[in-house]
Design a protein that fits this description.
This protein is α/β, with parallel strands linked by helices. It folds into 3 domains: 113 residues, no CATH class; 201 residues, von Willebrand factor, type A domain (Rossmann fold, 3-Layer(aba) Sandwich); 59 residues, no CATH class. Helix content is 39%, strand content 17%. The chain contains 14 helices and 13 strands. The strands form 4 sheets. The chain has a 6-stranded mixed sheet with strand order 8-7-6-9-12-13, sandwiched between helices. Helix 9 runs parallel beside helix 13.
Length: 413
């Protein structure tokens, strides 16, 4: 005879937490920029994140939210590997992996695929993980949602210009139809034209010259290069400026992909030199090396924009420091971190002039307010007829997103 054995159901204290909630709790850890590195004496962060680190950060986040009782903590202290809290943390990490937010890299020695995420994290700390594109997309969406929520009422749309064209939306006056126009017919104006020509008679005869079409604002696409300063000044002076900048870049990426599908966005990091990185790698980028080679970043951005066949091209530069490095003709890098070096500044401004000649707009978001830096940024803005924002890491996203969504005609042309 077959028997069924029933046991007492022990509810999971964290079963109400979704994977999205877990990702929100882990956001600062996943987007770490090196502010808490061993070089600053706070805590050591490995270049590659491990499952043990993920476990510890998740535990701290649950404690901060007051979701862990004293009984669970006491049990975990007495039996760290087999406690209810330990098993719950294992299940949460496994859920993140099962739903595609993190990918687990097995240890090189003695790893088998049947091991659970929690069991692997209890080993020698060799199990690594990487956040996936799905996680990056989620973090970008959450950041964009938070930033737009702080802006209040706003509207999405494509980039308006001063040109007029025929289309579906009827935002302008009518004009006579020309070959090649979208046949967005203004019926009233067409009939009135025929009446003026032949008088009010039945049947009403329409001629080609009577056709009137409605006009709407001509909307264009834009190619953007986001230049992100990752020199060490972005995490000095007791403030992490690079992580907020990364979050804004991810939000801008999500905004362009969902609301401006005709636009393009490329990412350039500038430090001692400059490099382009895929947008998928943005969340994993950390600060370094040390100096600020703004000129090399502008050069690389121009090469990228020269390949884009868009009506509008712009550079969005986020920085907090003065230009302090310069790539010489022989490839050597000239560095001077003391004051505004005349050679570095003059060569950087010459590159700004080239941007203007190529029809590239530069909008600068400065995370500092020193007198010398303000003067330098004002010169950049004056040369390229762009805009300059002197902001903080806390308001950077609001300024940048509103600037992108509310482009003015006088700044585009």
């Amino acid at each position: 005879m077959k028997y069924i054995k029933f046991g007492k159901h022990i509810p999971d204290p964290f079963e109400d937490l979704s994977t999205e909630d877990l990702m929100q709790m882990l956001q600062d850890f996943l987007l770490d920029s090196g502010f808490y590195s061993q070089y600053y004496g706070v805590r050591e962060m490995d270049p590659e994140k491990t499952m043990e680190q993920l476990r510890q950060v998740l535990l701290e986040a649950l404690e901060q939210k007051g979701m862990i009782s004293d009984e669970l903590l006491e049990e975990m202290v007495g039996n760290p590997e087999n406690s209810k809290l330990s098993e719950a943390l294992d299940r949460m990490m496994q859920r993140l992996a099962d739903e595609g937010y993190v990918s687990i890299e097995q240890p090189q020695q003695g790893a088998v695929s049947e091991q659970r995420a929690g069991q692997m994290s209890h080993g020698e700390g060799q199990t690594k993980f990487e956040i996936t594109d799905k996680a990056l997309d989620f973090l970008g969406f959450r950041t964009l949602k938070d930033l737009l929520g702080s802006l209040g009422k706003s509207s999405f749309g494509r980039h308006d210009t001063r040109e007029m064209a025929t289309g579906v939306e009827s935002d302008g006056s009518s004009r006579r139809y020309e070959f090649g126009d979208t046949l967005n017919l203004d019926v009233n104006a067409t009939l009135l034209s025929a009446i003026r020509r032949n008088g009010l008679s039945i049947p009403l005869e329409l001629d080609y010259q009577d056709l009137q079409v409605r006009q709407c604002e001509y909307q264009s696409s834009c190619a953007t290069v986001l230049m992100l300063d990752c020199s060490h000044s972005m995490i000095l002076y007791g403030e992490d400026r690079f992580t907020p900048a990364k979050k804004v870049a991810m939000a801008l990426t999500h905004l362009i992909r969902t609301q401006f599908p005709g636009d393009t966005l490329h990412m350039v990091l500038f430090h001692d030199s400059a490099e382009e990185i895929p947008l998928q790698q943005l969340a994993r980028v950390k600060v370094g090396p040390y100096y600020t080679n703004t000129r090399e970043g502008l050069r690389l951005a121009q090469r990228i924009l020269s390949r884009q066949r868009k009506d509008m091209r712009q550079i969005v530069m986020i920085t907090d420091g003065k230009p302090s490095a310069l790539t010489l003709e022989d490839g050597r890098i000239y560095k001077n971190a003391f004051g505004l070096d005349p050679l570095v500044v003059s060569e950087t401004l010459h590159e700004v002039v080239r941007c203007r000649r190529n029809g590239i707009l530069i909008n600068t978001f400065m995370l500092a307010s020193d007198y010398g830096l303000v003067n330098f940024v004002q010169k950049v803005t004056e040369i390229c007829r762009g805009k300059a924002y002197f902001t903080t890491p806390y308001t950077l996203g609001q300024y940048l997103l509103m600037d992108y969504m509310r482009k003015k005609v006088k700044h585009i042309h």
